[in-house]
Design a protein that fits this description.
505 residues, mainly alpha, two-stranded parallel ribbon, two-stranded antiparallel sheet, 18 helices
């Protein structure tokens, strides 16, 4: 938990350490990656809405193979195990009904109009949560962040009573020691921490920028890290107890059913829900919980772009749009338009490509340069001075060692390992064509490119020889005499602070 706690602090301080918002370099790159992420992440909410409304009925539509969308010749009403030519009914519901999946990204197909409608609803929900700014966002978080815990505990109580649940839990908690020597495992674990806490996405940075100057950011980072770890473990028990139950029903090993990615939430768990007693209750509650979790992440990333525009171009933008609500509407409208390719019949391939090159490739690069900017360029002594001004005491040796050595080295190792073990994007057995890979790299560069552009701009603006310019550009120019880096935000209440450490989906 230690390194992730300190990375949370670094992510939050990146905005607090500047008098103005990010104009170039890693700050602007963070804004861009957050908005790109929001354009396709909301598609998951549209999927959850589709399942949510489909779960109201006497039977769940993914329970059997007797539907118009089923490919009867290779459909199995349960999990097919090692029979690779068969698909479960829940898999076919996801592929043939929800996605109406084509054979590849080359065949985009037409719009899936139902998903298109749900995407509109998703963006309307997001807009209604953020159009009044961070005050309304903080109030929404009270429900969207707390309600899922009631559902998780209720599901856990229900699941542990099911036959076979203990086998799934045992599978979840039993370590495979040989895996600890695989670099890929550590890279994936670190990437999961990055995604679950929101490091390098800018959401915590934007929320932290609304805090009062003397807010206890050490406490907030501790709460974020502990809550995130607890939630992950709790969700693991809920998921694997259900998977153990499913393995018991179909007389299969647990690892034949366990999977990752969207398939776990939209294929495996719906199948589990369909076999549970009182599934008419659990299915809607489960997908409503997914909506709440998705909403937390979504409006936080959209808020990054809105906060940036208000901080950097507030006067100019408001002269044109007149009201802040119209700025939020404009951002949601642009995000919706950019998300339309994901709700075509070949949209799953676009989604997977975007996710791979945004949430995996770009994110690690940005995280490394964020850590370098804060820990080495801004510097640990300046961080300690700011903490002393904020809290009246200097951080202890643990934090100083983490900032100076452990965090930069950890992220550098992750970055190097990601480069060495790079694999192209895939969706199941589908391999993307070369042109699609090139598009993916272009998507990745949309955010990364601002780092070298910012560096060149900074060096060009200095005087002297190239070496002198480099040395000067590496020195932080932030005025440490300023008592409050963001005085214009001090009249806001603490709802942003609360959102910072409760929105950990």
């Amino acid at each position: 938990m230690g390194p992730s706690l300190d990375l949370s602090l670094i992510s939050s301080w990146l905005m607090l350490c500047a008098k103005q918002g990010p104009k170039a370099g890693v700050g602007l790159a963070t804004v861009v990656i957050s908005f790109v992420f929001s354009t396709y992440y909301n598609v998951i909410m549209s999927w959850a809405l589709y399942y949510f409304f489909s779960s109201f009925g006497k039977t769940l539509p993914w329970m059997s193979c007797n539907n118009t969308w089923n490919l009867v010749e290779n459909c199995s009403s349960g999990f097919p195990g090692n029979a690779t030519h068969l698909q479960s009914a829940s898999q076919q519901f996801f592929d043939q009904k929800l996605l109406q999946k084509t054979n590849g990204i080359e065949d985009v197909g037409g719009l899936h109009w139902e998903l298109f409608g749900y995407l509109i609803i998703s963006w309307v929900i997001v807009y209604l949560c953020i159009f009044k700014g961070v005050k309304s966002t903080g109030k929404v978080v009270y429900f969207t962040a707390v309600f899922p815990y009631f559902i998780l505990f209720a599901l856990l109580i229900n699941n542990v009573q099911l036959p076979g649940a203990k086998d799934g839990i045992y599978y979840f908690v039993t370590p495979v020691w040989s895996k600890l020597f695989e670099v890929k495992v550590w890279v994936n674990a670190a990437a999961q921490v990055f995604n679950s806490i929101g490091i390098a996405f800018g959401s915590m940075i934007s929320m932290a920028s609304y805090n009062k100057f003397n807010n206890n950011i050490l406490r907030d980072a501790l709460i974020v890290s502990i809550t995130n770890s607890f939630t992950s473990i709790l969700a693991g028990f809920v998921i694997f107890s259900a998977i153990g139950y499913m393995a018991h029903i179909h007389n299969l090993p647990v690892d034949n059913i366990a999977t990752d990615g969207p398939g776990l939430v939209f294929v495996v768990y719906p199948e589990v829900l369909s076999t549970m007693p009182v599934f008419q209750l659990w299915a809607p509650l489960f997908f409503f919980m997914l909506l709440c979790l998705g909403l937390d992440s979504q409006f936080a990333t959209v808020e990054v772009a809105i906060t940036f525009i208000k901080d950097e171009f507030g006067c100019q933008v408001l002269q044109f749009l007149k009201r802040e609500e119209l700025l939020a509407l404009a951002m949601c409208l642009v995000g919706f338009i950019l998300g339309i390719p994901h709700v075509t019949k070949g949209g799953i391939y676009v989604f997977q490509l975007m996710d791979h090159y945004t949430a995996v490739v770009s994110l690690i690069f940005l995280a490394f340069f964020e850590v370098v900017a804060v820990c080495w360029i801004f510097g640990v002594p300046r961080i300690c001075l700011m903490v002393k001004r904020m809290q009246g005491k200097v951080p202890n040796i643990y934090f100083r060692v983490c900032w100076l050595l452990l965090c930069p080295l950890l992220v550098l190792c992750i970055l190097i390992s990601s480069i060495v073990q790079y694999t192209p994007a895939r969706y199941g057995n589908y391999t993307y064509p070369v042109w699609a890979e090139m598009v993916g790299w272009c998507v990745s560069l949309v955010s990364i490119v601002w780092i070298p552009i910012g560096a060149i701009q900074e060096i060009y603006g200095k005087k002297g020889s190239l070496l002198q310019r480099l040395k000067t550009a590496m020195i932080s120019t932030i005025d440490m005499d300023a008592e409050d880096p963001l005085p214009e935000k001090q009249n806001l209440d603490n709802s942003a602070s609360e959102a910072l450490f409760t929105s950990v989906a």
